[in-house]
TrEMBL record:
GO terms for molecular function: G protein-coupled receptor activity. Keywords: Cell membrane, G-protein coupled receptor, Membrane, Receptor, Transducer, Transmembrane, Transmembrane helix. It is a multi-pass membrane protein. The lineage of its organism: Eukaryota, Metazoa, Chordata, Craniata, Vertebrata. It comes from the Eukaryota. This is G-protein coupled receptors family 1 profile domain-containing protein. It is found in: Cell membrane. It comes from Eleginops maclovinus. Pfam families: 7tm_1 (PF00001). The chain crosses the membrane at residues 35-57, 69-92, 112-130, 151-169, 195-222, 243-264, 284-305. Residues 351-363 have a biased composition (Polar residues).
Length: 363
């Protein structure tokens, strides 16, 4: 027996012994998982579509004159809306137990859209938090997304391009595989483990660890500044800042933790026992689905908790309602920041700049 055959025999024996110790069988729970994930996707699709649609509708018309925080919020909502639009495909895929029926083109396109959002949403949240911190504590510091000039558009385009490039590293290996049933999987023809580990580590660093460091650090500094501000109206403004960090971590940490542990098992087989890997494989799709809660949480945290945004939303709705007779005079007198009426331009500009600035914390 050659050394290579001897190693293969030892590997097979180790796998057999490893598999024997597997006492957990989660296959029976697969049906419940599919139902739960379908309902979760359906909830995120319906609520997220409504929330992000309203956010973009209210804020889009002033995107050219918006401050850096609001400009980032618009991009976050655009990014979240992109991934929400592909959720019907994911809903059907999870219902049919990973069977993909829409061909190779949509397999690659939907994955590309999802992965671009995966990165871009975190990038813009990080820059928005840093922008907010600078506007509160370093007002003389140049803004990342200034209102005047091309800098905001260059930086915005750069973040989208970076998200696209990072997404392509995974997307080039996405394909429709015809096994027992067609499925949409990332399956490099060569060096699968190396590619899987590289893509996972890049996503861990660029999508989670880097943005989380910026978001948590800036929010801690913002909380300190807000706590000492003379116009703080209680503790709400302080703890709300930490909620931003907590929600980001809760959405993404479980997914990256499961992904990281899976990488360890791929690099060093038999590091974990069979029961552990059974739980990891079962929970991977669950944590990936739960991470999409950011599409629902972001509009609430960064828009609907803001009184300025709620006022803009109400005034925008009022301005689009049909008016008759004296209703036109009433509508003309309602000077919303988003409205097209007259009023005090300075007041409109002030409300516009304060709007949706992380629930107006410290404004």
């Amino acid at each position: 027996m050659s050394a290579h055959e001897h190693n293969d025999t030892l590997m097979d024996n180790n796998y057999t012994l490893w598999f024997i110790h597997c006492t957990i069988d989660l296959d029976a729970a697969g049906d419940y998982r599919r139902i739960a994930l379908f309902l979760l996707y359906l909830f995120i699709f319906m609520v997220g579509l409504l929330e992000n649609g309203l956010v973009i509708w209210v804020n889009w018309r002033r995107r050219h004159s918006a401050n850096g925080v609001l400009f980032c919020i618009i991009n976050v909502s655009l990014s979240d809306l992109m991934v929400i639009m592909i959720l019907p495909f994911l809903m059907m895929e999870v219902t049919m137990d990973q069977v993909w029926l829409w061909g190779r083109f949509l397999c690659k396109v939907t994955n590309l859209v999802y992965t671009v959002n995966f990165y871009s949403s975190s990038f813009f949240l990080a820059f928005m938090t840093a922008e907010r911190y600078l506007s509160l504590t370093r007002p003389s510091f140049p803004a990342f997304f200034p209102v005047v000039g091309r800098r905001r558009w260059v930086l915005c385009g750069g973040l989208w391009v970076l998200s696209l490039l990072l997404a392509l590293l995974e997307n080039i290996h996405m394909d429709l595989l015809e096994w027992d049933e067609p499925g949409c999987y990332m399956m490099p023809e060569q060096n699968f483990i190396e590619w899987f580990a590289a893509v996972s580590f890049l996503s861990l660093i660029f999508q989670f660890l880097g943005p989380a460091a910026v978001i948590i650090t800036c929010n801690v500094l913002i909380a300190r500044a807000v706590r000492t501000a003379p116009d703080v109206q209680g503790r709400r403004d302080v703890w709300l800042v930490h909620v931003y960090s907590l929600v980001f971590v809760m959405c993404w940490l479980p997914y990256h933790l499961v992904s990281f542990l899976t990488i360890i098992d791929e690099i060093g087989p038999f590091v974990f026992n069979c029961n552990t890997m059974e739980v990891l494989f079962f929970s991977y799709s669950v944590t990936k689905s739960l991470s999409l809660f950011h599409c629902v949480a972001n509009p609430i945290l960064y828009n609907f908790l803001s009184k300025s945004f709620r006022d803009n939303l109400i005034n925008t709705v009022v301005n689009h309602l049909p008016r008759e007779g004296t209703g036109n005079q009433l509508g003309a007198g309602t000077n919303a920041p988003n409205g097209g009426g007259g009023g005090d331009p300075g007041k409109q500009r002030k409300l516009s700049n304060a709007s949706t600035s992380q629930s107006d914390v410290g404004s």
